[in-house]
Specification:
D-Maltodextrin-Binding Protein, domain 2; alpha+beta; ten-stranded mixed beta sheet; single chain; four-stranded antiparallel beta sheet; globular
Length: about 650
């Protein structure tokens, strides 16, 4: 079978067509009370503190989000599509306002603490109770900052709790309880991403747990505490007993923890004494069911055993849509575009000046060549990829996609390069990368290309072997690049399961050790409206002027950082640093606009299509507002027709 026909057949199985969206209200307009919703969780956390404290597992956020709150909370993705400021991505939660320089909540001079370069004032809601019955006060806020940094890191001692990261927290010098409901946080420098500290899932932790822990120097993940979560929630079904926060959620949210059956399920029940009485939960119970793998979750979605399936993957979308159209499944499919892009990332280590410390065998001079990268951008038919994997759902982003999830950067003026193999061929010819018979023959009968030094241009493409859509896209890219004379071997590499593909530097993961030529993966923003995430992905060593800020994992830095491409550009580093070191949100936006434009010029990766997250919901479940980072951020608004969630 000809390659084009084979690819068409392969991708027809992956090609989705839109299904009905999840309705936001019941047909009769009523909001029913009661019912149980089962949510499938196919990546089980080892501890509930994986929600940003000892780890960063998205499904740990899913488990904790209905219970744990922060100073600020997430907004629906639809509500932030045209925002003009980073602050608009957050809404007040335990705090009463989003503090900024413009409203005086953030000061960069005149702080009460001598030497503070910046201070942020947080005004807290009154009348909020923890599920353990204690009151939320400024003491909880300052204890949280003590735990993350001040008690140990600032004192030069290792934290007894193995924290996933202290980035940002390590800019804090002091937290002052100005009064019972006002906390002031001082910073040693201006720190732009300050809004995320203490916000979102597990943003603020209970002082009732932290006080004895800080006094004893204990480990939050293992230290046992006696909990009676009926005191603050008023629900007799809430948890009572002795456990650590690795298995118990003590929060302030619309749901309260009932039980954690390790490896099986976590049960949350309604919090009738929730501080926001106008936002009480309608559903009685949420069961978070731990699935052994993604395939099992998809099976349980189709059978109705779970009413909410999260992040099921693009490969599942066609079959899920077909089931809905055939009326053979009790759910709706609700894909949502994410704050990131599926990309083809290049290994630039051959031009990194030694930062990657790769063996020469792992450094491809072709992918480090800017002309070849530009030709590949022109030569890959990304619109055809979109049509194959998610027509009508996603699109091709600009050449740098920092504005995805940060719409206030839409004015950066970054172009979206169109498919143009003719120009790509001309560009390579002009650069001296000419077709040469010694390099073999492409399917169109033309010779593959050799570089100016006479070596044949051979570029491997790798991805996660357990993602059928990515594997199909590899073949499309290979076919496209053959037409501009670039040889991509048919034995794609590294093609390994996701667990291996994304393994850490210490575990010889191919991305972390830069052991690839090009790799297909997702690169996104991570925090609401916060482009500082990209510092960990693209920051170099400022041309040798800031080696401590270098995010290129290597043996020299013990594998710290996520700059897998090996990109190191002092101009880009300067722009990223300006964004991080300014508290003024408009100044930060300008800095990231410059960084966005620089990334488009450098092309360390080519965006293929905007990230797509595939969720399913019971056809009897209503009131859902999507957020691509935290799918269940608004569970209080969920309700089921007649209190029956099974569909």
């Amino acid at each position: 079978m000809p390659l084009a026909a084979a690819l068409a057949l392969l991708l027809s199985a992956c090609t989705p067509s839109p299904a009905a969206k999840t309705p936001t209200s019941a047909p009769n307009g009523t909001v029913a009370q009661g019912g149980t919703v089962t949510v499938g969780v196919w990546q089980a956390p080892t501890t509930l503190l994986d929600a940003g404290i000892v780890g960063n597992l998205p499904f740990a956020d899913v488990i904790a989000a209905p219970v744990e709150e922060g100073l600020l909370w997430y907004r629906a993705t639809a509500a932030t599509a045209t925002t003009t400021s980073e602050a608009d991505y957050w809404s007040p939660d335990l705090a009463t306002a989003v503090p900024t320089v413009a409203d005086g909540g953030v000061q960069t001079s005149g702080c009460a603490a001598t030497g503070a370069a910046m201070c942020v004032t947080w005004h807290l809601r009154q009348g909020v109770k923890w599920d353990d019955g204690s009151d939320l006060t400024a003491h909880d806020v300052c204890d949280t900052f003590e735990f993350h940094w001040l008690a140990y890191g600032a004192a030069g001692k290792p934290s007894p709790t193995p924290l996933a990261s202290t980035t940002g927290w390590n800019q804090v010098t002091k937290c002052t309880e100005l009064d019972r409901y006002t906390a002031v946080v001082d910073f040693k420098t201006q720190y732009g991403p300050y809004l995320a500290l203490g916000s979102g899932v597990d943003g603020i932790l209970p002082a009732a747990v932290l006080d004895p822990l800080l006094a004893s120097g204990g480990n939050l993940d293992t230290a046992a505490t006696t909990f009676d979560l009926t005191k603050g929630s008023g629900n007799p079904g809430a948890f009572k007993g002795t456990a650590s926060l690795s298995t118990v959620l003590d929060g302030t949210g619309p749901f309260v923890m009932a039980s954690d059956s390790k490896g099986s399920q976590v049960v949350l029940v309604r919090n009738p004494d929730y501080w926001n009485q106008t936002g009480l939960a309608h559903i009685d119970k949420i069961v978070l069911r731990i699935e052994p793998d993604l395939a099992t979750e998809e099976k349980d979605v189709r059978s109705g055993a779970v009413q909410v399936g999260l992040n099921l993957g693009l490969a599942a979308l066609p079959a899920l849509n077909a089931a809905v159209r055939a009326h053979s499944a009790p759910f709706t499919v609700d894909p949502i575009t994410g704050s990131g892009s599926e990309v083809l990332m290049f290994n630039l280590c051959a031009a990194d000046g030694g930062l990657c410390d790769n063996p020469a065998a792992q450094e491809n001079e072709d992918t480090a060549n800017a002309t070849i990268r530009k030709a590949i951008l022109l030569g890959v038919d990304r619109q055809a990829i979109v049509k194959a994997v998610a027509p009508g759902i996603t699109s091709v982003p600009p050449d740098s996609w920092m504005n995805l999830g940060a719409s206030y950067l839409n004015g950066a003026g970054v172009a979206t390069t169109t498919f143009d193999p003719t120009t790509a061929n001309s560009m390579l010819d002009a650069a001296g990368d000419v077709r040469n018979a010694k390099c073999g023959t492409a399917p169109d009968g033309q010779d593959f290309r050799a570089a100016k030094d006479g070596t044949c241009i051979v570029i491997n493409v790798g991805t996660t072997s357990d993602d059928a859509v990515r594997v199909a896209v590899e073949s499309m890219i290979r076919s496209d690049l053959a037409k501009i004379g670039i040889n991509v071997p048919a034995s794609f590499k590294p093609n390994v399961p996701a667990s291996r593909f994304f393994a850490a530097f210490a575990d010889a993961g191919p991305l972390a050790t830069h052991s690839f030529d090009t790799a297909i993966s997702t690169v996104g923003i991570g925090l609401p409206g916060e482009p500082d995430t990209y510092s960990s992905i693209w920051h170099g060593d400022c041309g040798g002027a800031c080696p401590s800020a270098d995010a290129v994992p290597s043996s020299a830095d013990l594998g710290v950082g996520m700059n897998f491409s090996g990109l190191s550009d002092s101009e880009l580093d300067k722009d990223l640093d300006l964004g991080r070191s300014s508290a003024d949100l408009s100044a930060r936006a300008h800095a990231y606009t410059l960084a966005d434009q620089r990334l488009a010029a450098l092309l360390p990766a080519i965006p293929l299509y905007q990230q797509v997250i595939v969720n399913t919901y019971s056809s009897s479940l209503y009131g859902i507002a999507q957020n691509d980072l935290i799918a269940d951020f608004d569970t209080a608004a969920w309700y089921c027709a007649d209190g029956n969630c099974a569909g």
